[in-house]
UniProtKB/TrEMBL annotation, chain A:
GO terms for molecular function: ATP binding. InterPro entries: AAA+_ATPase (IPR003593), ABC_AA/LPS_Transport (IPR051120), ABC_transporter-like_ATP-bd (IPR003439), BCA_ABC_TP_C (IPR032823), P-loop_NTPase (IPR027417). PANTHER family: CONSERVED COMPONENT OF ABC TRANSPORTER FOR NATURAL AMINO ACIDS-RELATED. Keywords: ATP-binding, Nucleotide-binding, Transport. It comes from Nocardioides imazamoxiresistens. This is ABC transporter ATP-binding protein. The keyword Ribonucleoprotein does not apply. SUPFAM superfamilies: P-loop containing nucleoside triphosphate hydrolases. The keyword ATP-binding applies. SMART domains: AAA. Residues 20-262 form the ABC transporter domain.
UniProtKB/TrEMBL annotation, chain B:
The chain crosses the membrane at residues 6-25, 32-54, 60-81, 88-107, 119-143, 175-195, 201-219, 226-244, 250-272. It is found in: Cell membrane. CDD domains: TM_PBP1_LivM_like. It holds the Pfam family BPD_transp_2. InterPro entries: ABC_transp_permease, LivM-like. Residues 280-310 are annotated as: Disordered. This is Branched-chain amino acid ABC transporter permease. Keywords: Cell membrane, Membrane, Transmembrane, Transmembrane helix. Residues 295-310 have a biased composition (Basic and acidic residues). It comes from the Bacteria. It is a multi-pass membrane protein.
Length: 268, 310
């Protein structure tokens, strides 16, 4: 099954170097081909999306990009430099940040401390003096900025167990933003959020795009993908079945067959 | 005050060595490494201290420094060997390490003194030095629980994948946990021999693991404050329980069992939970946060979406 390019070259700009390039990446678990020969380019200042049914390999692909999941074969390039043999920590230090499919916050740290964990990953974070850093009292400007962007003011001293699922999600996103990422990978960031919060997250991602940040968004909310993304990939059984502008991808017969159903056929 | 100090000087010394022994197990556990190698390092520290003072006429401070470096390197090497193991398998491997140290002590000939051990270790070590070294070790461990390092240690323990995705070299942190465990265990062992002047294989057996684990389970496993509480309780409790005579062991056992069942986060956990509860009540009294109300449940938040799908 080959990918359907709804437009030649999709909706990606030409003449611009990609932030991250995935080249024929395969992740096989024994006989299960979770990711089977995926190639894609993530361009600066764009929001890319991946849609597909459960088990199509979306999260595994993000795991492979961040080197938390071992590749069977293929190449990964960040700024043109291969890194498929680097560790996850090295990838993070290249300022590749991610959120996870399930919320993963540290239960004994407050919201502010959880977000500061993201800022701790920044080599350029020199906020506070030696004493405040030793005693853990310093709060980085990146953390304040992330709290403000994710509308978490007032929740700083809460512990994760005291927050609703949607707010925990926002803390995860804030932590990823606090790393000062060049590439942000978001695995179902709005799961568990209501429509208003989803709209807020969509607006947040679009404001980050304005700042030039490259983003990859995995979501099941197709309307949000259409409203938010510049370029969408559709996956099924570990392979790309379509790519292009969001509206073209949701109109693709293969995508409707595999994932969306008839409801999106006449989507404008 | 001075009378209390001099009449209990042995218990005060045992509290400090017990505290360092407990920390040698607690530090790796805080990093998610279920290792008891610190107890083995304690055994090496006792014997190495005796050998350095008796056979090489070293002073107290050089003895402690060399012993700590040696035990740090030995336990780090052990960590490299068994770094692929986790959980119970890792714990069993480190228990085996401790038992091997005991076997070497018994069969070490004149170097270890065989089943008699080594005795007559008289050095220039003072109580002031013991207090100072313990305090420095405690401050360093306490600092490792705060700030950037503390957050990263928490991440390595709670979620190694998350830690790696935050730029933390998890493998390196775990190996450092082994090395620190070795240094703390060696420090406790070497200070013990310098104040007690004798060591035999019976002093470095499996019971050390049980004692250290009891201290940190009852005191609290995730903070140095828990180790301090545990060391105080389980050094002084047997002495206090002497009044009940033959029931001493039974009461000791009941206290440990009750603490394990009723205090899953240890005594220090009670303080932490109470503090959080008070903070939560204060926040509730102050009203909802500026970032919006957070009182909707997950199901309530999903309701509009479910409605749309219906």
């Amino acid at each position: 099954m080959s990918a359907t390019h709804t437009e030649p070259g999709g909706s990606l700009p030409t003449g611009v170097d990609p932030v991250l390039e995935v080249d024929d990446v395969k992740v096989h678990f024994g006989g299960v081909k979770a990711v089977d020969g995926i190639s894609m380019k993530l361009m600066p200042g764009m929001i890319h999306g991946i849609i597909g049914p459960n088990g199509s390999g979306k999260s595994t692909l993000i795991g492979a990009m961040t080197r938390l999941t071992r590749l069977t074969s293929g190449r990964l390039l960040f700024d043109g430099e291969e890194y498929q043999n680097a560790s996850a920590a090295v990838v993070a230090r290249k300022r590749v940040a991610r959120t996870f499919q399930t919320v993963r916050l540290l239960p004994d740290l407050t919201v502010l401390e959880n977000i500061q964990l993201g800022a701790d990953a920044r080599a350029d974070d020199k906020s506070g003096n030696v004493l405040t850093r030793l005693l853990g009292k310093q709060i980085s400007p990146a953390v304040r900025d992330a709290v403000s962007r994710t509308n978490l003011e007032g929740f700083e001293d809460f512990y994760p167990s005291e927050l609703s699922y949607g707010t925990q999600r926002r803390v995860e996103i804030a932590r990823a933003i606090a790393t000062g990422p060049r590439l942000l990978l978001l695995d179902e960031p709005t799961a568990g959020m209501n429509q208003k919060e989803r709209a807020e997250i969509s607006a947040l991602l679009q404001s980050l795009r304005t700042d030039g940040l490259c983003q990859l968004l995995v979501e099941h909310d197709v309307q949000m993908m259409i409203d938010t993304c510049d370029h969408v990939y559709a996956m099924n059984f570990g392979r790309l079945i379509a790519e292009g502008t969001p509206t073209d991808v949701v109109r693709s017969p293969q995508v409707q067959e595999a994932y969306l159903g008839r409801k999106w056929r006449d989507h404008a | 005050m001075m009378q209390f100090y001099f009449s209990n000087i042995v218990l005060i010394q045992a509290t400090m060595t017990g505290l360092l022994l407990a920390l040698s197990i607690q530090v790796p556990i805080r990093m998610g490494v279920f290792s008891f190698a610190g107890a083995g390092a304690y055994g090496i520290g006792c014997y190495a201290g005796a050998i350095f003072v008796l056979d090489h006429q070293l002073g107290a401070i050089p003895t402690i420094v060399i012993t700590c470096l040696m035990t740090g390197v030995i336990v780090l090497a052990l960590g490299v060997l068994i770094q692929k193991l986790t959980g119970l398998y890792l714990a069993m491997a480190t228990v085996a390490f401790c038992l091997i140290i005991s076997v070497i002590a018994i069969n070490g000939g004149t170097t270890t003194g065989g089943s008699t051990g080594r005795y007559g270790v008289i050095s220039d070590f003072t109580m002031g030095g013991m207090f100072a070294i313990t305090a420095v070790a405690l401050v360093l461990v306490a600092l490792s629980e705060r700030g950037r390092l503390g957050r990263r240690v928490d991440a390595v323990r709670e979620d190694p994948e998350l830690a790696a995705s935050m730029g933390v070299n998890v493998r390196r942190y775990r190996l450092v946990a082994f090395a620190v465990s070795g240094v703390l265990g060696g420090l406790a062992g070497s200070m013990n021999i310098l104040v007690r002047s004798a060591v035999s294989p019976l002093d470095i057996g499996f019971h050390l693991i049980v004692l250290a684990l009891t201290m940190i389970i009852v005191g609290g496993s995730l903070s140095w404050k828990g180790a301090v509480l545990g060391a105080l309780i389980f050094t002084w409790l047997p002495d206090l329980l002497k009044v009940v005579g033959q029931w001493q062991e039974l009461i000791y056992g009941v206290i440990v069992a009750l603490a394990a069942v009723l205090l899953p986060r240890g005594l220090y956990g009670i303080y932490v939970d109470t503090k959080r509860s008070v903070q939560r009540r204060r926040r509730e009294a102050a009203g909802p946060p500026a970032g919006g109300s957070d009182d909707e449940t997950h199901a309530e938040r999903l309701e509009p979406e479910m409605e749309g799908q219906r």
